[in-house]
Design brief:
heterodimer, A: alpha/beta, Rossmann fold, B: 86% helix, globular, binds adenosine-5'-triphosphate, binds magnesium ion
């Protein structure tokens, strides 16, 4: 067994707790993520996927339970330490991008480097390098509102990857990309994952995208209902299995 | 149904509604006072004309003109404020309107919905403004008598009719225009925030990629922006015209030269200081969106001061100019603050994003302080810059007094300080950290 980089114990999330419209989105989640794993999270809309990855990654605070990242109990950390921790270890790609609309693409991508106090000249080199990788070179001095949905998504990806995080948390990172861009992104994730040992946790709806992962978690109504490990399966086999599980789940949900 | 919805929507944007009322309250007070004063002044002078000789006749014509110019000027400025205020209120509702449209609201329903909201606020603001105006008249009369004025302000019954009809006319038409704009662009609006943020399409890079003709154009705009300083010996009346031209030049200089340079400077030199780098980005946005409001502040201040010194006026007319000056500086400062406030809802979200990417709470507060302080500092600096052209003109004409300069600068600084403090407190309240992690 490898080193555990991320662990959640008895995680429970209640939105609007102590009020009339309190809603329990996660019930009792337990998960361990090893260094270098590539985890996919699937499940129907509203099942709690975003809630799950936000709560295991310091973006949101669980109502109950514990979260450890790189062995640190993040719920016990001070707000400032969490800030440092985020830009030093984690790269986030949010479902709705979360870009600064008042700032240029360049400034958005540079954010984590700026926080780390990297020298402006080096920031420039790294942002331009990253922009080239993401095919965003011509967009660098535009505002997000002047870019297409896919370009905004690639900006969010660039921002998440620019500080070489050890864990990437991605909520439907391919939602606005065409199939070629999606595959390129997944290949990049896979490369980072295999060559640099970066751990990836990624939400997706797409069985084909999910087939790039090494382990897949299914969430339904706030519970982890099943898991598949790629193990020795080849990609086709893995893909067939994912399709089988997600379609059987679909059929089941139509009947019920 | 529409009425209830309109009231609910009004409640949902309480602070904006409050600003709206406040602006209308102040414009009401000023315009009401002004109509009364101007009417009294003209009447008073008509009497002088009847009883005195021909020399007074020319003086009457000159002064009468002066009163009329002032009247037109103040009415135009207040109208611009009314239009802006109304515009901002409606624009903050752009998304809501678009959703109503997409779900099948008709143009008349939309218009009704907007008019109910604006008129409800006017019903509160206008009577209060008129009452304050009425309360101020005895006070002003007292000062006038002390100054040895020949005549005092009498309450003119039609001043209120004039004022209210102008206001209602303006509010009605800006609302109609906004409603029809929303109606035509409904679907597009729903997909973008452009109506709210004023479609800011400025190219922030432009400066380095300039061709020769672009550089010539830039030099030209710098020249236009500096016109008032270059021609500051042209008399106070001439200076007013030059300052207005200067504002046009300033707009180009800001958007095409200063802000791109500022962005480049931040990118090349300040990127390793997150608070500075991102506060600068917000500052750039603030200057872009509030441009018109502070050019108006500059133009107002300069024109009023020019008027103040152009002729040897009666105490009543002096009073007229001073009252207008003070009110307009306050109103215009509020308009600037109001413009920033309009953007605050989207700014809130950006502060959250800063938080999520790893800014400490302390750093976010620093970003806010820096942004707001630099912004108002910039407005004050630019206004004082153009004001100095006027002071130079006055010194050359031998009309400058230290006392006046101190009072004028003081009023300006106080008004901006007031809105600075208010804006800062709005910003502080806008970022409430989620239950500490
Ligand atoms: N801020 C919130 N307040 C209240 N309820 C929320 C909040 N965010 C999410 N929920 C609820 O929690 C449940 C899970 O939401 P979540 O966003 O995690 O779903 P998801 O699996 O990511 O769905 P999708 O695939 O559509 O993105 C949903 O029923 C949602 O309505
Ligand atoms: Mg989601």
């Amino acid at each position: 067994m490898g080193e555990i980089v991320l662990e959640a114990r008895h995680l429970k999330k209640i939105y609007n707790a102590n009020s009339l419209n309190a809603y329990e989105a996660l019930h009792d989640i337990n998960i361990q993520v090893e260094k270098g794993e590539f985890i996919g999270v699937m499940g129907p809309s509203g099942s709690g996927k975003s809630t799950f990855i936000n709560n295991i990654s310091t973006i949101d605070t669980p109502t109950e339970g514990k979260v450890f990242i790189n062995g640190k109990n993040v719920l016990a950390m001070s707000a400032n330490d969490i800030g440092h921790f985020r830009y030093q270890n984690l790269g986030f790609i949010f479902q709705d991008f979360n870009l600064l609309d008042t700032h240029t693409i360049y400034e958005n991508i540079a954010l984590p480097l700026s926080l780390a106090g990297v020298d402006p000249a080096e920031i420039e080199t790294r942002v331009k390098e990253m922009a080239q990788k993401m095919d965003m070179t011509d967009q660098l001095y535009k505002l997000p509102s002047e870019c297409s949905g896919g370009q905004r998504q690639r900006t969010a990806i660039a921002r998440a990857l620019i500080n070489n995080p050890s864990i990437i948390i991605a909520d439907e990172p391919t939602g606005n990309l065409d199939s070629q861009n999606s595959e390129e992104l997944l290949e990049l994730f896979q490369k980072l994952n295999r060559e640099d040992g970066v751990t990836v946790v990624m939400v997706t709806h797409d069985a084909f995208i999910a087939s790039y992962t090494s382990r897949l978690i299914f969430i339904r109504d706030g519970n982890i209902t099943s898991e598949i490990q790629k193990g020795d399966m080849d990609e086709d086999e893995y893909f067939q299995k994912i399709v089988a599980i997600s379609s059987s789940r679909k059929r089941r949900s139509r009947i019920s | 149904m529409i009425g209830k919805d309109a009231i609910r929507s009004l409640k949902a944007s309480k602070s904006k509604a409050l600003f709206y009322c406040l602006t209308f309250y102040l414009t009401s007070t000023l315009m009401f006072l002004f109509f009364n004063m101007a009417e009294s002044a003209t009447q008073g002078k008509a009497e002088i004309f009847v009883t005195n000789n021909m020399v007074d006749l020319t003086k009457y014509i000159l002064n009468g003109n002066m009163g009329n110019i002032m009247m037109v000027f103040v009415v135009v400025m207040c109208s611009i404020d009314i239009v802006f205020t109304n515009d901002f209120y409606v624009r903050t509702k752009a998304k809501e309107l678009a959703i109503r449209l997409i779900s099948g609201a008709t143009y008349t329903q939309l218009l009704k919905y907007l008019l109910i909201q604006t008129f409800l606020m006017l019903v509160v603001a206008i009577p209060l403004g008129v009452l304050s105006g009425l309360a101020l008249i005895p006070l002003i009369n007292h000062i006038l008598i002390q100054q040895g004025s020949d005549f005092i302000i009498t309450i003119q019954s039609f001043a209120i009719v004039e004022y209210i009809s102008i206001t209602l006319f303006l509010v009605f038409w800006t609302t109609v225009l906004n409603a029809s704009f929303a109606y035509k662009n409904g679907a597009v609006l729903m997909l973008s925030d452009n109506m709210k943020t004023g479609a800011n399409k400025e190219k922030l890079m432009g400066f380095y990629s300039s061709s020769f003709t672009q550089i010539l154009a830039k030099i030209f705009w710098i020249f236009v922006a500096l016109l008032p300083i270059i021609f500051s010996n042209n008399g106070t009346g001439g200076i007013a015209v030059f300052v207005i031209a200067g504002c046009v030049g300033l707009d180009h200089v800001l958007k095409e030269i200063l802000l791109p340079l500022f962005s480049t400077f931040t990118r090349k030199r300040k990127m390793h200081k997150p608070v500075v780098a991102y506060a600068n980005g917000f500052l750039r946005q603030d200057i872009l969106v509030s441009g018109i409001t502070f050019y108006l502040l500059i133009a107002d201040v300069v024109v009023l001061i020019a008027m103040m010194f152009t002729r040897n006026d009666t105490p009543l007319e002096k009073m007229l100019v001073w009252v207008s000056f003070i009110f307009i500086v306050i109103l215009q400062s509020m308009a600037i603050m109001f413009r920033l406030e309009t953007d605050l809802s989207s700014r809130k979200r950006e502060f959250q994003i800063l938080d999520q990417t790893g800014f400490e709470e302390k750093q976010i507060r620093k970003v806010m302080n820096r942004e707001i302080t630099l912004f108002y500092g910039f407005v004050l600096f630019i206004t004082l810059f153009y004001l100095s052209a006027v002071y130079i003109a006055l010194i050359r004409a031998g009309l400058f007094t230290v006392m006046n300069a101190v009072v004028i600068t003081g009023v300006l600084v106080m008004a901006l300080l007031g809105v600075y403090i208010l804006t800062l407190s709005f910003y502080r309240n806008s970022f409430v950290k989620k239950a500490a992690l």
